[in-house]
Every structure is written in structure tokens, then in C-alpha cells.
UniProtKB/TrEMBL annotation:
Origin species: Hyphomonas beringensis
Keyword set includes Coiled coil: yes
Residues of the HTH cro/C1-type domain: 26-80
PROSITE patterns for the chain: HTH_CROC1
Keyword Coiled coil applies: yes
Keyword annotations from UniProtKB, A to Z: Coiled coil
Region of interest: Disordered: 1-34
Gene Ontology terms, MF aspect: DNA binding
Official protein name in the record: HTH cro/C1-type domain-containing protein
Top-level taxon: Bacteria
Length: 140
């Protein structure tokens, strides 16, 4: 008999930030339409407890169910999703690239300034040990 993973079955799923955001948006839209949880549930053929779970982020909304909710609440699908700021991600990537470039420059300067061959050899060994495994194996 196969052994079940006890930790996944005994621990409740914690809602992620996207589930929480979507649930808050469902609650906001429902209240804007003047509906109770029972009223929304009735129109969707669900129980009010299921609406509570959606709104709390404890149950994930499928794409189909979210579409049904959007129709009943007269909202577009994108209303229920947290906006993604791609510019912030691009800025973070640019900052990371700039930091890497700065550190590479410092590392080159430190190596160039080394006069003792043993120190230089130790630096090369250290840097080689830090490379990803396939690159190390190729140089062996």
C-alpha cells in the first residue's frame, strides 16, 4: 500500500496573496451589487459557505467559476486580478544587472592588483569552486 504524505493532507492550504486579492475583489463587487453571500451563492447554485471560502481566499476560484461570478456581478475578469507592474520588475532586473556589473568590475580590479602568484592561484581556485557544477567538470 502506498504511503500518503501526511503533512500535505493534514495541513490546511494557506491562501496566497493572489487568492486573497481575488477574494477581496469578489467581496467588493458583491457588495457593490447589493448582494449578500447567500444571494450570490443562490445565483451561482452554490452555498453561502463556498462564497465565504472564495472571499477569504481559502478556496481557489477556477477560471470557469470566476467567469460565472464576473457575469453575475457585472465585472470584467481583470477586475478580480491584482495588476502586475512589469515596469517594477524591469527596474529590479536593471538594478540587479548594474550590481552584477559593478561587482564584476571590483573582482577584476582585485585580481589585477594581486602580485603574489600564490594569492592569485588561491583566488582562481576559489572562483572555480563557485562556478556551477557542469562548468567545473568541463575544466577538470
Amino acid at each position: 500500500m502506498a504511503k500518503r504524505n501526511e503533512s500535505s493532507s493534514s495541513e490546511a492550504r494557506k491562501p496566497g496573496s493572489a487568492d486573497l486579492y481575488t477574494g477581496r475583489q469578489v467581496r467588493t463587487a458583491r457588495k457593490q451589487r447589493g448582494l449578500t453571500q447567500e444571494g450570490l451563492a443562490s445565483q451561482l447554485g452554490l452555498t453561502f459557505q463556498q462564497i465565504q471560502k472564495y472571499e477569504a481566499g481559502h478556496s481557489r476560484l477556477t477560471a470557469g467559476r470566476l467567469r460565472e461570478i464576473a457575469i453575475v456581478l457585472h465585472k470584467s475578469i481583470d477586475f478580480f486580478y491584482e495588476p502586475i507592474d512589469l515596469r517594477a520588475e524591469e527596474t529590479a532586473d536593471a538594478e540587479l544587472r548594474a550590481k552584477v556589473k559593478e561587482l564584476q568590475h571590483k573582482a577584476r580590479k582585485l585580481i589585477a592588483d594581486m602580485a603574489d602568484p600564490e594569492d592569485l592561484q588561491a583566488a582562481v581556485h576559489l572562483l572555480n569552486a563557485m562556478k556551477p557544477r557542469p562548468e567545473r567538470d568541463a575544466q577538470a
